[in-house]
Every structure is written in C-alpha cells, then in structure tokens.
Amino acid sequence: MYFLCTLNKNIMDFFEWNFSFKKTILIFIIICLFLSILSFFLFHQKKLQIFFNKINILTNTIHEGFLFFSCSQWNKYTLIIFLFFILCICLLYLTNKAIKKDIELINSINRIR
Questions:
Q1: 63 vs 30: CA distance, rounded Å
Q2: Which of 29, 39, 55, 109 is deepest in the core (most CB within 10 A)?
Q3: How many CB atoms lie within 10 A of CB 88?
Q4: Any stretches that span the bilayer, and where are they (predicted)?
Q5: Residue 100: its pLDDT value, please?
Q6: What is d(CA 81, CA 24) in angstroms, rounded to the nearest whole number?
Q7: Contact, 32 vs 59, CB < 8 A?
Q8: SS3 string of the chain?
Q9: Maximum Cα–Cα distance across the chain
C-alpha cells in the first residue's frame, strides 16, 4: 500500500511534498516495516514482541499524523489511506491483547504444574 501510493502520481497529488518531508515519510515507512517483520519473527519471545508492537503503534500514529497535516485536499484516496492506517493500528492493538491473553494462559498452566 505504501509503495503503491508513492508510485502512482494521481494518488499522491493531494500531498504537498518537499524533499525533507519525503525523507521523513520514507524513514517512518522503513521503521514500521522493520518493526512489523521483527515482531513477526519474534513469536517465541512474547514480551519482546509486545514491546515492538507498541513501538510500531507509536510510529504508525506519528506517520498518520504527518500525513494528516500534510494533506492539502481530501478525496477518496486520502480516506482510503487514513482508514488503512487506522486499521493497522487497531490490528496491532488486538494482536497485543491476544498475546497478553496467551501469556496469562501459559502462566496459569505453569502455576498448575
């Protein structure tokens, strides 16, 4: 979704771009992508996975804020992008909730043993 938006000129016409802002957006995209991949591969270390998911929620929120304040005109593409970010943040939150329940279940089983 991120790279599709940067490749298609019609979609990105609603943003006021300058060079430093493009670099900032690219840095946040790389950080979010790296944290998602890292969190995916740390499925055995659940507390570390929760920590990286929380950082990813924070970076996605900051990234969405940058895009929100740089938007010069609103159309269906902007709404799709913002809904996508909100969906990502909600899914990360639900993932953290499920991982915490899994940790509680494992701890309760360990107490029974």
A1: 11
A2: 39
A3: 19
A4: 25-43, 77-95
A5: 95
A6: 17
A7: yes
A8: CHHHHHHCCCHHHHECCCHHHHHHHHHHHHHHHHHHHHHHHCCCCHHHHHHHHHHHHHHHHHHHHHHHHHECCCCHHHHHHHHHHHHHHHHHHHHHHHHHHHHHHHHHHHHHC
A9: 61
User: Residue 46 in contact with residue 103, Cβ under 8 Å?
Assistant: yes
pLDDT(55) > 70: yes
**pLDDT confidence band for 14 (50 / 70 / 90):** very low
End-to-end CA distance of the chain: give it in Å, rounded.
47
* Separation of alpha carbons 12 and 109, rounded Å: 51
* Token duo for residue 44: 């055995």
* pLDDT tens string 59-95: 999 888 887 777 766 777 777 878 888 999 999 999 9
Length of the chain: 113
